[in-house]
């Protein structure tokens, strides 16, 4: 069933879910541009996302979607434009600093520490919020023990949300593909983001795993009360879960709107979905 969230106008001529209209947008990207030498990879990209919105960024291969993700996380610094996270500019920040500000992401190619346990992979994501003095870490003094216990407890709590606590001490690389995808999302959530960027989360999944992913994305929005922005080629997933959708082609936005609007947009049908609307 297609998502039925009511989208309403926002003062900046964007649309956000009705439940978010009285709140500051979590992400406000304004007129972003990215040049690589003489090549314009992204041009005049603007996107506003409500605080608990599930949004989609779609487009053909090579459209510039991952470049946009790299701009939002400051892997690339935009040639033009500005990015506001919770109203604060990310200009000049490192990728780690942007992550600490509240943007987390997963990758098209899974990037887990395969030879570490599931639990330890999640604990890596807790570094922004569980601190310890260097001396305590070296001597395993009380401060270290307390921080380690706190990290273990929180990591197990997060794993339990996604029914993975039973696998806490298994090696991450031993998990089935779908579970590895899920673990990468849990690790990203451990950083306590305000918005989670998912880069092709359904890639390589079978229909059952994709359905589970869809349910988990809704669970993330509902239980953590954060926004989600996903790049995805699975149109069934996009149309059924995304509230606002932005379509990119050759680095430029060609359409924005709800799933119903995008599905019937002739420019999108021709440029992305194909003449038959596949």
Quick gist of this model?
By secondary structure, this protein is of the alpha/beta class. The protein folds into two domains: 1-102 and 193-278, P-loop containing nucleotide triphosphate hydrolases (Rossmann fold, 3-Layer(aba) Sandwich), CATH 3.40.50; 114-191, no CATH class. It has ten helices and twelve strands.
> How many independent structural domains?
2
- Helix/strand structural class: alpha/beta
The number of strands is 12
Please identify which CATH superfamily of the largest domain we are dealing with.
P-loop containing nucleotide triphosphate hydrolases
Element string (H = helix, E = strand): EEEEEHEEHEHHHHEHEHEEHH
> What general outline do the C-alpha atoms trace?
globular
> What is the spatial order of strands in the main beta sheet?
8-9-10-5-11-12
Assess the beta-strand content as a share of residues: 15-25%
| Helicity level | 25-40%
CATH topology group of the largest domain: Rossmann fold
The largest pleated sheet is described as: 6 strands, mixed
């Amino acid at each position: 069933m297609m998502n039925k969230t009511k989208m309403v106008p926002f003062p900046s001529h964007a649309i956000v879910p009705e439940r978010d209209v009285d709140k500051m947008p979590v992400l406000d990207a304004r007129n972003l541009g990215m040049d690589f030498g003489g090549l314009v990879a992204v041009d005049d990209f603007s996107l506003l996302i409500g605080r608990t919105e599930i949004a989609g960024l779609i487009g053909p291969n090579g459209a510039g979607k991952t470049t946009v993700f790299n701009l939002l996380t400051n892997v690339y610094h935009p040639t033009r434009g500005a990015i506001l996270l919770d109203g604060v500019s990310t200009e000049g920040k490192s990728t780690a600093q942007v992550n600490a500000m509240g943007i987390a992401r997963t990758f098209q190619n899974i990037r887990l520490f395969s030879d570490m346990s599931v639990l330890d992979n999640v604990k890596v994501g807790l570094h922004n919020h569980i601190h310890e003095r260097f001396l305590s870490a070296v001597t395993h003094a009380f401060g270290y023990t307390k921080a380690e216990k706190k990290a273990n407890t929180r990591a197990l709590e997060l794993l339990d949300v996604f029914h993975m606590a039973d696998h806490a001490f298994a090696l991450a690389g031993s998990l089935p593909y779908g579970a590895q995808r899920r673990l990468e999302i849990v690790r990203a959530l451990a950083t306590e983001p305000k918005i989670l960027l998912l880069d092709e989360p359904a890639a390589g999944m079978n229909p059952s795993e994709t359905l589970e992913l869809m349910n988990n994305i809704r669970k993330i929005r509902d239980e953590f009360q954060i926004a989600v922005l996903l790049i995805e080629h699975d149109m069934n997933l996009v149309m059924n879960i995304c509230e606002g959708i932005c379509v990119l082609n050759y680095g430029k936005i060609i359409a924005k709107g709800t799933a119903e609007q995008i599905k019937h947009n002739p420019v999108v049908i021709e440029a992305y979905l194909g003449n038959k609307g596949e």
